[in-house]
Amino acid sequence: MNNGPLFGLKVIELAQIMAGPTCGMMLADMGADVIKVEKLPGGDDARNYKEESAGEISHSFAMLNRNKRSIALNVKKPEGRDALLRMIKDADVVIENYRLGTMEKLGIGYETLAKINPGLIYCSISGYGRTGPKAKEGGFDLIAQGFAGLMSVTGEKGGRPIKGGNSVADINAGILASVGILAAYVHRLKTGKGQLVETSLFEAGLQQMYWFAAMYFATGESAGASGSAHPLIAPYQAFETADRWITLGGANQRNWVKIAEVLGHPEWAQEPRFLTGPLRKKNEEALVALIAPVLLTESADHWMCLLEAAGVPVGPVNTIAEALNHPHTLAREMVVETEHPTAGRMKSLGLPIKFSRTPGGVKRPATLLGEHSREVMHEYGFSNAEIEQMLACGALFAIESA
Questions:
Q1: Cβ atoms within 10 Å, residue 164
Q2: Cβ contact 250:259 at 8 Å
Q3: Which of 70, 210, 230, 399 matches a 20 to 30 Å C-alpha distance to 91?
Q4: Long-range contacts, stretch 148-151, CB < 8 angstroms, 24+ apart
Q5: In the chain, domain spans
Q6: Are 173 and 128 contacting, i.e. CB atoms less than 8 angstroms apart?
Q7: Which of these, 25, 110, 111, lies nearest to 63 by C-alpha position?
Q8: Given a cut of 50, is residue 171 above it in pLDDT?
Q9: C-alpha triplet 112, 119, 21: angle, nearest 5°
Q10: Which residues form the signal peptide (predicted)?
Q11: What is the mean pLDDT of residues 150-172?
Q12: Does the fold of domain 245-316 match that of domain 10-208+336-397?
């Protein structure tokens, strides 16, 4: 169905909610055959994360689980565990995002699976990683953002700690996991050997702190929150105009000189306080105090037109609706539609990576729980009798239409 660059890669996703499913979604969007093995009863907990007035389907679940096939398997039952092990013998990748030790207790940890499939790439996403004093603790995006220092640099200067509006640690952990899997896959193509790949929400949060960490290593001081402003350069932040907010990027000397000219004050560029980037950052409050009143005199469109013509980075602060419906968003195929079996036409975000020869994309909607149980079991050599036995003992669940 999906002929992207990873076509033919067989992935077993033993993950739920966000970090692991994000990883699986990335691989599936690029063409991998991702079989989502959901727990019984109930399946992925995110199936119950429903938006108000959204109906029966969770759009949040649907967003992260398109392009996958779903089987519902109770691996706590011997029949379910044996079925999973039989599938993994022929798999390329396994993804899981449970607390350290959970998979081992179920008899499906890395050491066990590597013995039956030496070429297997086993990807583990946890809260804090598999080593260290916090390794056994669970992981949550909010907690990871706080622990990694992200919340200390988010929000207005002098304000209370603020979580990033999106699930930074969860999403980035999924992306890092997909990068790790692909690197391990390249190694396996060269050597035939699989390996354990792991990352964590904590590391995914800390990895976002490159510049803040560099500043600390250089000065020994922890930077705090500074609103929309950049930690090293100015002016580089959001400003209010007569009708809406815009973002203005004076990222270098040339941009700063152009900003001063467009705003009608070329003399600002010659002021001793603003002659260099470090000086502008040091005197940022005075700089903003000059710029802000001028921008308030005209509309956002007025200023963006002038600044864009001058080659200055500038843009609107969009609402989610404005961002998703912008012509550029649509031109880049970042909003796509699929036909869901019960919810009808559904929109989701597209694949943010483009390929000239092997394009990926969203070809299949998120599945119903157990929608492909029979189909997948047959593909892995299970007979009708074996499938019926598993259904009867509660090790497998399949919807009637599957």
A1: 18
A2: yes
A3: 399
A4: 148/202, 148/205, 148/206, 148/208, 148/209, 149/205, 149/206, 149/209, 149/212, 149/222, 150/205, 150/208, 150/209
A5: 10-208+336-397, 245-316
A6: no
A7: 25
A8: yes
A9: 75
A10: none
A11: 96
A12: no
- Residue type, position 12, single letter: I
Is there a contact between 19 and 95 (Cβ–Cβ < 8 Å)? no
- Spatial distance between the Cα atoms of 14 and 108, rounded to a whole number of angstroms: 10
CA distances from 203 to 116, 211, 220 (A): 30, 15, 21
According to DSSP, the β-strands at 93-96 and 121-126 are parallel
Which string of b and e fits 218-238 if b means at least 16 CB within 10 Å? eeeeebebbeebbbebbbbbe
On the question of pLDDT at 54 being above 70, the answer is no
Nearest residue to 18 via CA among 129, 197, 170, 126: 170
Identify the sign of the CA torsion 388, 392, 395, 397.
positive
Tokens for 129, please give them: 């990683």
Residue 188: which H helix or E strand, with range? helix 168-191
Place of tokens 């640099």: 153
Beta partners for residue 351, in sequence order: none
Measured in residues, the chain has a length of 402
Q: Whole-angstrom Cα distance, residue 242 to residue 16?
A: 45
Cβ neighbour number for residue 7 with a 10 Å cutoff: 14
Q: Judge contact between 352 and 333, C-beta under 8 A.
A: no
Q: What is the pLDDT, as a whole number, of residue 402? A: 38
Pick the CATH number of 245-316 from 3.40.50.2000, 3.30.1540.10, 3.40.50.2300, 3.30.1490.190: 3.30.1540.10
The residues assigned a catalytic role are 170
pLDDT reading at 76 higher than 70: yes
Residues 6+ apart with CB under 8 A from 96: 14, 15, 20, 102, 103, 122, 123, 124, 125
- Per residue in 320-369, pLDDT (tens digit) is 999 999 999 999 999 999 999 888 999 999 999 999 999 999 999 999 99
